[in-house]
Specification:
Elements: H1 7-23, E1 36-38, E2 50-57, E3 59-60, E4 63-64, H2 66-73, H3 77-81, H4 84-91, H5 99-123, H6 130-142, E5 147-149, E6 167-173, E7 178-188, H7 192-206, H8 209-222, H9 230-239, E8 250-261, H10 264-267, H11 276-301, E9 309-316, H12 319-329
Parallel strand pairs: 2-9, 7-8, 8-9
Antiparallel strand pairs: 1-2, 3-4, 5-6, 6-7
Helix pairs in contact: 1-9, 2-12, 4-5, 7-11
Amino acid sequence: MQDDVTPSKNAEHEALDLEVALAGLRRDYSKLMPRLRTLEHTVKCECEGVVLRLHFPAFRQGKATIHELVDAIVHFLTSFALPRSDVKAVDDLYGKVSVDDFKLKVSQLSESAKALFKRANEVTNRNGEAGELLLYLLTEWILDAPQLVAKMSLKTNREMPIYGSDGIHVRYSAEQSRLLLYWGESKLYSDIGDAIAAAITSITEALEPAKMQHEIELVQRNIDFSGLDNASKSAILKYLDPYDDAYNERHDVTTCLLGFNFDAFHALASTQPEKTDAEFVKLAEAKLKELAPKLAKAIKAANLVNRPIEIFFFPVPSVQELRDLFQAKIGWKS
């Protein structure tokens, strides 16, 4: 008796299973809402496929709560920096060991994440910036795209050239019947023009075939640490295999966080605290309208038109202050 399940039905079932599996990797970030605000706006970039988003630290008594934001995001450093399997191994101990032993394991995991983050940034000559962590959080939270590979854990190998994206995330779109791979870039600059220029350069380089292939190979070699079951890992690997039809249904999307100094924070110092949020939103939307054509011009000049790019603008009172607070919080030596 022949199996009456057609190949297309098998593919549908596999896609559904993958969608469910990836959904299971998502975390609840609603607790960050009091710290990270979202600007609701209608500003668009004239380049097709480019989405403009703007997030900012919450205000309290008329001042941006930068210290509180840093305190909050550091708690997510473990899940960002370490492989999901390492985190799960400790989570699975809950209720199986004493309370004191469990607290010790969690503390050790946190310290390991901080140490790894610092070592990785030393190896790659980076500043250990908060931008990478913010991009990770916004990609998982806003785009519903869980991290596929904890790239930070790969950067400590001096023999392995880790260039390209700052993060690798994934989402299956049932509506489009395709896998979306998100490749992240994070830039923190005092001047937004410099941030845009640096981002465009990095995005252009990351999209070079050789570097993109290197990123794909990183996923293929390290997918065992993704936290997915074998069937889901096999399904994703098909989208990375040029000899499989699924490869043609994979779309690569760039995510980019652009942190920059925004004078509006200081300009609102004399505003009545209860009016600060509303006034800031007006100024932020005006800034976004100003930046949209500048970004489009840079994208066109780099021949990136029609590339899907998710831009997270992140204005702060001072990028240097954000960086210093974050580095102090994780024990980074100045």
